[in-house]
Design brief:
Length: 413
């Protein structure tokens, strides 16, 4: 077994201009380079119904965010409100979206770096997916307009998309409408029925195979507890289940996804086997941990045995972790890198109390880097033996500035 090769660099944290552009622009043949981002679908024309019925003044917006912060047992001293956007008329406020700012930042970055394609990590349409009412207009505003210039000049540039929980929120027909749109339009967005699929990329003799999951389907066939915390940040003991909607419950065919993943991973001869889905396996926001616990039980046996990396969104932040895989494979296991890139439109804070508890009570978990209350994306370079992962943010002023935060190098498992 090859030892884990992990390199962390914070040297370029000021801005992209502080880094050598050549460090991101590598045109050598045997390298695969791509973007990863998720939770991009938040648009002002499609707000949650409760906000439409009960709009908030700027003062109420701030007060409600603080109230929710404290209800989640987050330290008041850590409180940061998301950036605010005033609706037409200037009387009512909603959370500002980073959809266009992040798209602008990625476009600017890819003008200086190599971006052969991108992966979208779910919640592509927020808050309730497609609903059969002017869906093509919605797809245009959320899929086409923001990414119009992304990948310009790159032949066949595609954004391969997973489905998230919000993409499922109206109905199975609404969820399918999104996949159908990607299949019947001349668009960068790529999805396939039944929502989980594979695709391959190749440069020279280097190959990478991506395994796209519908993690919402996986979870809705399981008993998942509601996320509840004690004041100290530890999980609360209770028996209250998260109840799926009727259309979310998996069919017999849906239930083949786990076996499909194992079979596909086992059969793949790619140099890199990368699994991507919406939901996280480990995360630090303090409101998704029960789902993560269930997904670890479902996915880690196959991921630890066959996969090289796992990408997710769901948490509206940027995170890098490891699972040691010792729970699956014992001592000497090769750790599995976990990349969370869910900050493309909305912001969420790290739950510091929960994260302290999580690190202290889970011996197979390793925190590497976290940043909440930001918009951002990630960029990955693969060669035959190494993956370089770079995390980027962009400011709340919507300038699209590219701010490099951190780099990691992971050896192929």
């Amino acid at each position: 077994m090859k030892p884990l090769n992990l390199f962390l660099s914070l040297a370029c944290a000021a801005s992209l201009s502080a880094c050598s552009v050549n460090s991101f622009r590598d045109d050598q043949v045997d390298k695969i380079q791509f973007l990863a981002f998720g939770d991009s679908g938040y648009h002002y024309d499609y707000l949650k119904p409760k906000l439409q019925k009960n709009p908030q003044t700027p003062a109420k917006f701030q007060a409600e965010k603080l109230k929710k912060w404290l209800k989640q047992h987050r330290p008041e001293k850590d409180f940061v409100a998301p950036p605010m956007h005033l609706l037409p008329g200037g009387q009512f406020a909603v959370e500002r979206t980073g959809l266009h700012a992040t798209a602008k930042s990625m476009t600017r970055f890819c003008q200086q770096a190599v971006c052969e394609f991108g992966i979208m990590l779910g919640d592509n349409i927020y808050p309730d997916g497609a609903d059969g009412k002017n869906d093509d207009e919605r797809f245009d505003k959320i899929f086409e307009q923001p990414y119009k210039s992304l990948g310009a000049g790159i032949e066949g540039f595609k954004l391969y998309a997973a489905l998230g929980n919000h993409d499922w929120n109206t109905s199975r027909l609404g969820r399918n409408a999104q996949v159908d749109y990607a299949q019947r339009h001349d668009t960068k967005i790529t999805m396939q029925q039944p929502g989980y699929f594979t695709f391959k990329r190749q440069q020279g003799d280097l190959t990478a195979e991506f395994f796209v999951l519908d993690t919402n389907l996986l979870l809705k066939g399981q008993n998942v507890l509601d996320d509840q915390l004690n004041p100290d940040g530890s999980p609360k003991q209770h028996n209250e289940l998260n109840q799926p909607e009727s259309w979310e419950k998996p069919t017999e065919a849906d239930n083949q996804q786990l076996q499909w993943l194992k079979n596909q991973l086992k059969a793949s001869d790619a140099d890199w086997k990368i699994v991507m889905g919406h939901h996280t396996i480990w995360s630090s926001g303090g409101s998704k941990f029960e789902e993560a616990k269930v997904l670890r039980r479902l996915l880690l046996p196959s991921l630890c045995e066959y996969a090289d990396m796992y990408f997710a969104g769901h948490e509206h932040d940027l995170e890098v972790h490891l699972d040691t895989c010792q729970g699956e494979q014992g001592e000497g296991a090769k750790p599995l890198p976990l990349i969370i890139s869910g900050a493309a439109a909305k912001q969420r804070a790290i739950h510091t109390r929960f994260q302290q508890w999580q690190k202290a009570n889970n011996p197979t978990y390793r925190e590497l880097w976290l940043k909440g209350m930001v918009w951002g994306f990630s960029h990955i370079q693969l060669d035959k033996t190494n993956a370089r992962v770079d995390m980027f943010t962009t400011p709340n002023d919507e300038s699209g500035e590219v701010v490099h935060e951190v780099s990691f190098n992971f050896a192929n498992r």
